[in-house]
Amino acid sequence: MIKVGIVGGTGYTGVELLRLLAVHPDVQLTAITSRKEDGLPVADMFPSLRGRVALAFSAPEKADLSQCDVVFFATPHGVAMAQAPALLAAGVKVVDLAADFRLKDQASFEQWYKIPHTCPELLEQAVYGLAELNREAIQGASLIANPGCYPTTMQLGYYPLLKAGLIDAGALIADCKSGVSGAGRKAEIGTLFSESSDNFKAYSVAGHRHTPETAAQLQRFTEQKVDLVFTPHLVPMIRGMHSTLYARLTKEVSNEELQSLFEAQYKDAPFVDVMPFGSHPETRSTRGSNMLRMALHRPGNGNTVIVLVVQDNLVKGAAGQAVQCMNLMFGLEETTGLTQIALMP
Ligand SMILES: NC(=O)C1=CN([C@@H]2O[C@H](COP(=O)(O)OP(=O)(O)OC[C@H]3O[C@@H](n4cnc5c(N)ncnc54)[C@H](OP(=O)(O)O)[C@@H]3O)[C@@H](O)[C@H]2O)C=CC1
Ligand SMILES: CC(=O)N[C@@H](CCC(=O)OP(=O)(O)O)C(=O)O
């Protein structure tokens, strides 16, 4: 059994990791931390886990994480970088759900996240945890930078078009919407019920930290300069993400060829569903599952191609993707413990 520790077990991605790992056949939950809930049985805070998780939260300084085989950090940016060096030196694998190791460039990280990077020496070693585009590297990794939720949808949607050289990489426009759980469980005015329900708005239009992450990753797949305009929106739902990705075609290509390109690209990706051309994927078709669904459109058969992408921000956008990486790192079947069907309606 793989001994698993979770730092930040009381947050939304933390409890999602618990939900998935509690029924994972190869995992033994070993330590779950919380600074505020030291000693509280996990199932007292999350009744959904009664009878499934017998552990209590422990303060991070009390938890002996070095006895684990892998530790997930479901914490704010900056926490994993403080503890990863010692864990890695003790032979423990690390999966960070935050952004500490996503950007290879230290200056860019510090500019966007506004905190100093305390272990830049690990940036090179860290492997970006998007299995569909990086499976082999993840299999050999000991430190995973789990992708951001929006970047997961943008990369998987744009990748086949970019790799095939069919679009202008300098004119990518991504219009993306997230449920409120994307902002985490911490108390904030913007996520109060009376602020975020019955309301709809864009945010961070001038620049969101997921733009450099996505552009840097996509840049690996094209010689053209990637220029991405990304606008996130907050929608009044709890879970779910919907990304509408626009691109300008630069070559003659039929709709059938576009569809075949996507189907071929993801035929061996168990968590990417390429729906029939012209479909309208719904966020609820991914709710609680690790599936990401996408569909292609081409209005008026012109030279704009649109890729619609949906996922559950807490699963494929965070905890499920992290478990997918763990499976690969430990030589398990990629889908182990991740075969839940979405909740509909
Ligand atoms: N929500 C989402 O959809 C997604 C989130 N992410 C990323 O995953 C990470 C976790 O997000 P989320 O679960 O939403 O966040 P939450 O705010 O819901 O939870 C944060 C958790 O971290 C713990 N924590 C906070 N500060 C520290 C600290 N200094 N040291 C140790 N533990 C700490 C908190 O518990 P306590 O205070 O008791 O210690 C809590 O358990 C973030 O980096 C987020 O950006 C990535 C993709 C999607
Ligand atoms: C709705 C909402 O607020 N979403 C978060 C993104 C969550 C995510 O993916 O997080 P990290 O990159 O921070 O890990 C945001 O836009 O900041």
TrEMBL record:
<dbReference type="GO" id="GO:0006526">
    <property type="term" value="P:L-arginine biosynthetic process"/>
</dbReference>
<dbReference type="GO" id="GO:0005737">
    <property type="term" value="C:cytoplasm"/>
</dbReference>
<comment type="pathway">
    <text>Amino-acid biosynthesis; L-arginine biosynthesis; N(2)-acetyl-L-ornithine from L-glutamate: step 3/4.</text>
</comment>
<dbReference type="InterPro" id="IPR000534">
    <property type="entry name" value="Semialdehyde_DH_NAD-bd"/>
</dbReference>
<dbReference type="GO" id="GO:0051287">
    <property type="term" value="F:NAD binding"/>
</dbReference>
<dbReference type="InterPro" id="IPR050085">
    <property type="entry name" value="AGPR"/>
</dbReference>
<feature type="active site">
    <location>
        <position position="149"/>
    </location>
</feature>
<keyword id="KW-0055">Arginine biosynthesis</keyword>
<keyword id="KW-0963">Cytoplasm</keyword>
<comment type="function">
    <text>Catalyzes the NADPH-dependent reduction of N-acetyl-5-glutamyl phosphate to yield N-acetyl-L-glutamate 5-semialdehyde.</text>
</comment>
<dbReference type="InterPro" id="IPR000706">
    <property type="entry name" value="AGPR_type-1"/>
</dbReference>
<protein>
    <recommendedName>
        <fullName>N-acetyl-gamma-glutamyl-phosphate reductase</fullName>
        <ecNumber>1.2.1.38</ecNumber>
    </recommendedName>
</protein>
<keyword id="KW-0028">Amino-acid biosynthesis</keyword>
<keyword id="KW-0560">Oxidoreductase</keyword>
<dbReference type="InterPro" id="IPR058924">
    <property type="entry name" value="AGPR_dimerisation_dom"/>
</dbReference>
<dbReference type="GO" id="GO:0003942">
    <property type="term" value="F:N-acetyl-gamma-glutamyl-phosphate reductase activity"/>
</dbReference>
<feature type="domain" description="Semialdehyde dehydrogenase NAD-binding">
    <location>
        <begin position="3"/>
        <end position="141"/>
    </location>
</feature>
<comment type="similarity">
    <text>Belongs to the NAGSA dehydrogenase family. Type 1 subfamily.</text>
</comment>
<dbReference type="Pfam" id="PF22698">
    <property type="entry name" value="Semialdhyde_dhC_1"/>
</dbReference>
<dbReference type="Pfam" id="PF01118">
    <property type="entry name" value="Semialdhyde_dh"/>
</dbReference>
<dbReference type="InterPro" id="IPR036291">
    <property type="entry name" value="NAD(P)-bd_dom_sf"/>
</dbReference>
<keyword id="KW-0521">NADP</keyword>
<dbReference type="GO" id="GO:0070401">
    <property type="term" value="F:NADP+ binding"/>
</dbReference>
